[in-house]
């Protein structure tokens, strides 16, 4: 990345004497100063709202009944914990996240292995693979809902009609995909979008593999499976973890696909969608905030484990 | 991704099964791109041809869907321009804030720099929906509802952690000797940043900008809650198709394609930047 020309740049100024020892405190602030704008910005925009959420979660506040705003104690939390919809939403969120991350990670691994070989048109196949990730999420969800899943004119049932007609049948199965398997419909649409992401990370991992060692193992008579099991997979481990972690961060918060494909119906309402509903449609600010606080606490617990993984992932390039 | 061309020398005996693997790779690639191709093809069909079963693949092409999208109902131009404004300005703001922060975290790390770094990442893990209500109430009380600047500030906060992580990883590649030389020559902080470090990490900055732009452009939840008719963004505009009835498929596909076009173009143009960016700079 660096050329010699760049290294020799920046020698125009006059040398200045270094600040004396007494100014070390000032120097500390000089070091910290560039960090402060970003830090203060993040605290104001992301942390203050959470404090507000915490306060509102103990209040009785529904925008439909503006006269009854007051302190509610732990009522909101009690209502959230006893709410069947909330419990379903937790379960749906887990299924959705684990399902999408696992399937797209496995598919991504398979495709990354396919693309790690040299073959005619590899660049073209890689470009084709990336396309799903570059479709705006709402647009992708609309595409799946109307152009692919639709029971009457969607591509899936259209393809079934076409295949069946090849065999002379005019009675093809025409399932109503979204009604029959609502959660899987959302999962498949998301897997389609996230497999390219996993594939890209794993492919980069594969290409960073020390090839001379693999070659040596092959010459020593190791089979492809042995090489994969004992060399490729351990090498890929941190890339698999990275893909799983980043994928989870985004899919846990998914709103677009649930909102668009099923509008949260048929048991597909995940936590973001459910909280959005309590707040935006029921206008129950107190209960929405209590739900949000519970989700935040849950996320912190899970994230603490996740962050340990990340810190080991980024260990290899320590700061100076 | 220069590695793409430098593939391992596969021994001759492996070549035979290779053709099937090549075929498989092509089939998988085509399957994944098929919905996108189908979207483009349907957008170029008439509404009647778009809603046939089995699909009318070879139907005559027309720009009817696009004409209907741009001139049929509410104009998509204001939302598209809003999205462009929000994405570009928030990306600029992110870079402005993240670059010095990443500098402080990597070149001359402050004490406890890992804590700060993980604070940034942890904000990314907290569910955004939990901060939505207070922001909405704040916007309502201060008259900022349906104001594009509120989205810009929020998108900046949304992307800042990613940008700080990415840029830190790119900045740690700057050779120490360069910085020592600059400091010995008495270059000020601003000068060191702008004329010593910036040129070296330019590719990294481009990757960061690309990712921030894409994420801002794609965002739906906040835009939906915090905007109405004036500051509506393109994804919010698209949601009007969620419950459509009747013949609208060609128009929907035209709309989906138009809104995705900036991301598709930017993403294809910078494929290798994409993976760097998405992995927060940890995959180079």
UniProtKB/TrEMBL annotation, chain A:
Organism annotation: Winogradskya humida
UniProt similarity note: Belongs to the binding-protein-dependent transport system permease family.
InterPro entries on file: MetI-like (IPR000515), MetI-like_sf (IPR035906)
SUPFAM superfamilies, A to Z: MetI-like
Location, primary (coarse class): membrane
Pfam families with a match to the protein in the record: BPD_transp_1
Residue spans crossing the bilayer: 35-59, 89-115, 127-144, 183-206, 288-307
Stretches for region Disordered: 1-25
Keywords assigned: Cell membrane, Membrane, Transmembrane, Transmembrane helix, Transport
UniProt xrefs under PANTHER family: BLR7065 PROTEIN, INTEGRAL MEMBRANE SUGAR TRANSPORT PROTEIN
Membrane topology: Multi-pass membrane protein
Composition skew (Basic and acidic residues), residue ranges: 1-17
Protein name: Sugar ABC transporter permease
Cellular compartment(s): Cell membrane
Lineage of producing organism: Bacteria, Bacillati, Actinomycetota, Actinomycetes, Micromonosporales
ABC transmembrane type-1 domain ranges (all copies): 90-306
Stretch forming the signal peptide: none
UniProtKB/TrEMBL annotation, chain B:
Residue ranges constituting the ABC transmembrane type-1 domain according to the UniProt record: 80-270
Keywords, comma-separated and alphabetical: Cell membrane, Membrane, Transmembrane, Transmembrane helix, Transport
Transport as UniProt keyword: yes
Listed InterPro entries: BP-dep_ABC_trans_perm (IPR050901), MetI-like (IPR000515), MetI-like_sf (IPR035906)
Pfam families, alphabetized: BPD_transp_1
CDD domains with a match to the protein in the record: TM_PBP2
Cell membrane keyword on record: yes
Transmembrane regions listed in the UniProt entry: 20-41, 84-105, 117-136, 148-171, 192-217, 248-270
Membrane topology type: Multi-pass membrane protein
Protein name: Mannitol ABC transporter permease
The organism of origin for this protein: Winogradskya humida
Classification of source organism: Bacteria, Bacillati, Actinomycetota, Actinomycetes, Micromonosporales
């Amino acid at each position: 990345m660096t050329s010699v020309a760049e290294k020799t740049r920046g020698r125009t100024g006059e040398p200045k004497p270094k600040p004396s020892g007494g100014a070390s405190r000032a120097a500390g602030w000089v070091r910290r100063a560039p960090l402060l704008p970003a830090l203060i910005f993040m605290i104001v925009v992301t942390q203050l709202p959470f404090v507000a959420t915490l306060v509102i979660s103990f209040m009785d506040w529904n925008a439909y009944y503006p006269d009854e705003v007051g302190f509610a104690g732990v009522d909101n939390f009690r209502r959230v914990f006893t709410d069947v919809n909330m419990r379903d939403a937790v379960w749906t969120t887990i299924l959705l996240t684990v399902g999408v991350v696992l399937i797209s990670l496995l598919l991504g691994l398979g495709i990354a292995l396919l693309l790690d070989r040299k073959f005619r048109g590899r660049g073209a196949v890689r470009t084709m693979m990336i396309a799903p990730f570059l479709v705006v999420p709402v647009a992708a969800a609309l595409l799946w809902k109307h152009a692919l899943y639709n029971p009457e004119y969607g591509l899936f049932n259209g393809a079934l009609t076409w295949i069946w007609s090849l065999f002379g049948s005019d009675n093809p199965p025409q399932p109503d995909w979204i009604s029959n398997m609502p959660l899987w419909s959302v999962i498949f649409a998301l897997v389609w979008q996230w497999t390219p992401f996993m594939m890209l990370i794993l492919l980069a991992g594969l290409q960073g593999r020390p090839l001379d060692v693999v070659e040596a193992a092959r010459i020593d008579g190791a089979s492809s499976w042995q090489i994969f099991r004992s060399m490729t997979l351990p090498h890929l481990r941190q890339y698999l973890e990275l893909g799983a972690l980043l994928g989870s961060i985004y899919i846990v918060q998914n709103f677009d696909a649930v909102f668009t494909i099923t509008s949260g119906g048929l048991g597909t309402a995940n936590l973001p969608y459910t909280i959005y509903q309590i707040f935006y449609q029921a206008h129950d600010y107190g209960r929405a905030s209590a739900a949000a606080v519970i989700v935040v606490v849950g996320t912190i617990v899970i994230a603490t484990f996740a962050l340990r993984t990340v810190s080991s992932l980024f260990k290899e390039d320590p700061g100076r | 991704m220069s590695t793409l061309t430098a593939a391992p020398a596969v021994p001759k005996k492996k070549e035979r099964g290779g053709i099937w693997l090549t075929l498989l790779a092509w089939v998988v690639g085509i399957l994944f791109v098929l919905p996108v191709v189908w979207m483009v093809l349907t957008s170029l069909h008439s509404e009647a041809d778009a809603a046939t079963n089995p699909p009318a693949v070879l139907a005559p092409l027309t720009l009817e869907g696009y004409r209907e999208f741009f001139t049929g109902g509410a104009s998509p131009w204001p939302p598209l321009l809003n999205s462009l404004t929000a994405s570009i300005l928030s990306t600029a703001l992110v870079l402005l804030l993240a670059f010095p922060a990443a500098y402080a975290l990597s070149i001359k790390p402050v004490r406890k720099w890992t804590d700060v770094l993980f604070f940034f990442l942890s904000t990314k893990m907290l569910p955004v929906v939990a901060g939505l209500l207070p922001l909405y109430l704040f916007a309502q009380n201060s008259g900022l509802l349906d104001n594009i600047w509120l989205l810009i500030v929020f998108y900046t906060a949304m992307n800042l952690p990613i940008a700080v992580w990415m840029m830190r990883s790119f900045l740690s590649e700057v050779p120490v000797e360069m910085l020592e030389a600059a400091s010995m020559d008495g270059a000020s902080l601003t000068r060191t940043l702008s004329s010593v470090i910036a040129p070296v990490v330019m590719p990294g900055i481009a990757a960061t900008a690309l990712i921030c732009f894409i994420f801002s452009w794609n965002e739906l939840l906040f835009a939906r809650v915090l905007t109405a008719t004036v500051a509506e963004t393109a994804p919010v505009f698209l949601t009007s198709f969620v419950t459509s009835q009747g013949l609208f498929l060609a128009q929907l596909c035209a709309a989906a394609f138009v809104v995705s076009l900036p991301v598709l173009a930017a993403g294809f143009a910078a494929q290798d930047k994409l993976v760097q960016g998405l992995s927060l700079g940890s995959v180079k």
